From TrEMBL:
This is Major facilitator superfamily (MFS) profile domain-containing protein. Pfam families: Sugar_tr. Residues 38-459 form the Major facilitator superfamily (MFS) profile domain. Keywords: Membrane, Transmembrane, Transmembrane helix.
Length: 478
């Protein structure tokens, strides 16, 4: 077995890991608890950087009705709403592209991203026309795209493998919780007060981030050997310090060997799983979830639902909870079966939504029918289609390919969200709301056939060639 750049090569298979410790004596329970706290608390506080982005992600739903009204502080047209929403994801795409660059260390990369988001919210606070809105959203998207990549590296370097895996899963939930906060703030606060509140929150997060510890790897990168040894002792007092220091020094000396997108695509066995992940991301977005989150309040109002603003808050809370269920419970089941169940249920609920809107079930039967049908849709979407494509990356790809596949998946996720949101806006504004849901249902039915035909029952197995393994072992033995 060999170790390089937090990757274990064992029995010909690359297995990704976080900080690895060679244990000395067994750690007492109270010291083990302290070690966990030293890893968990900094990671949790660092993950709070997702809140300002999540709030901006949820900002359109409660804000668009105000901006489209005759008394709007910044008049915009319905055609412009999709463009305003899309600029956040455009920024996220470009931020993701540069998210691996730790020029001053991941801690300061996180702080830099937060400072960019603060600038974005300041622009929103001073907004006088649509150009301020566009600038604000693209800056926040760009800043978060970069900071999120830095955050993942920070957690991976600071925590033990199993703990890092759990904490990395939680990153998206901070962003989703930010969406919930946006729906609530938008109900109670005016346009400018909303922005001011998030500005203050972002400034507080910057202040907290200044006290985040560096990882042992970063201390070594800065030439602070003593601080690196101290950090290892804090994180795992039963670790063999000399061994850990040698391993970290070796990691810094060796060049990163992650695949580029072209290297990955040249490997025939990885092309099919890559195509599967990209197309599943397409179906994930084009079955309508991004559009219903952006236009939740307007969608509910269009169905003549009473108390649409409060119902939209309930809708997004269910969206948040069902994502939690999808990641931490449904992940225990077979990926293909989970996807197929979710897809069939989504198709059925989308057809129900088409019928509810077209035949006006709210007036004919019960005034809350549209809320129930939309809630069923978002629940079944979130427990499968929304979360499984990301889960497939560690199942389908070797450790050295996961970083680039994850980045491509995030960029596709953002690009597809932009496109489907614009399509929804055009269909809703120029035709009728049910036409948009009819499109979603047709795509969902096609998605079911795709899952049956192309998603394997078992994970793909990619084995490193003997030459690669030999080179890894020779590098570690130096």
């Amino acid at each position: 077995m060999s170790t390089k750049n937090n990757v274990i090569i064992k029995d010909g298979t690359a297995i990704e890991s976080a900080l690895l410790f060679e244990r000395g004596e067994e750690m007492p329970p109270e010291r083990r608890l302290r070690s966990w706290m030293m890893q968990i608390f900094p990671s949790v506080f660092a993950s709070l950087i997702c809140l300002p982005f999540g709030i901006m992600l949820g900002w359109p739903s409660p804000t668009y009705p105000k901006l489209l009204a005759l008394t709007s502080p910044i008049p915009i047209s319905m055609d412009q709403t999709a463009m305003v929403a899309g600029f956040l994801m455009i920024g996220n795409i470009f931020g993701t592209l540069i998210s691996d660059g730790s020029f001053f260390g991941t801690k300061y990369g996180i702080i830099l991203g937060l400072c960019g988001m603060l600038v974005g919210w300041i622009l929103m606070w001073f907004a006088a026309d649509i150009y301020y809105l566009l600038s604000s959203r693209i800056i926040i998207g760009l800043s978060f795209g970069y900071a999120a990549g830095q955050l993942k590296i920070y957690i991976k370097e600071l925590c033990e493998p199993q703990l890092a895996q759990v904490l990395s899963k939680c990153i998206n939930f901070y962003a989703l919780f930010g969406v919930v906060i946006a729906y609530i703030l938008g109900y109670f606060l005016s346009f400018t007060t909303f922005s001011l509140a998030v500005m203050i929150l972002t400034a507080v997060l910057i202040a907290i981030s200044l006290f985040l510890p560096h990882s042992a790897r970063e201390y070594l990168r800065f030439g602070k050997t003593k601080e690196a040894e101290t950090m290892i002792k804090y994180l795992k007092s039963d670790a063999k310090i000399d061994f850990e220091m040698q391993k970290l020094n070796l990691d810094l000396m060796l060049k990163a060997d992650n695949f580029s997108i072209f290297q990955m695509l040249r490997k025939e066995k990885l092309r099919k799983p890559f195509a599967v992940v990209v197309l599943l991301t397409f179906f994930q977005q084009f079955t309508g979830a991004p559009a219903t989150v952006v236009y939740a309040q307007m969608t509910l109002r269009a169905t003549q639902l009473p108390y649409a603003e409060l119902c939209a808050i309930g809708y997004i809370v269910l969206f948040f909870i069902s994502n939690l269920i999808g990641v931490f419970y449904c992940s225990k089941f077979n990926r293909k079966y989970c996807l197929l169940f979710s897809n069939i249920a989504v198709s059925a609920t989308l057809v129900l939504n088409v019928c509810t809107i077209y035949y006006d079930f709210n007036r004919t039967y019960w005034k809350y029918t549209s809320l129930v049908s939309l809630c069923l849709y978002i629940f079944f979407h979130s427990i499968g289609l929304a979360v499984v494509p990301t889960m497939l990356i560690p199942d389908y790809f070797p450790a050295r390919a996961r970083n680039v596949v994850s980045k491509v998946q995030i960029m596709c996720f953002s690009a597809f969200a932009i496109i489907i949101t614009k399509i929804f806006q055009v269909l809703y504004h120029n035709y009728s709301l049910y036409v948009a849901f009819l499109l979603f249902s047709c795509i969902s039915i096609v998605s079911a056939f795709f899952i049956v035909a192309f998603v394997p029952y078992k994970p793909f197995v990619y084995v490193e060639s003997n030459n690669n393994i030999k080179n890894e072992k020779e590098a570690i033995s130096l």
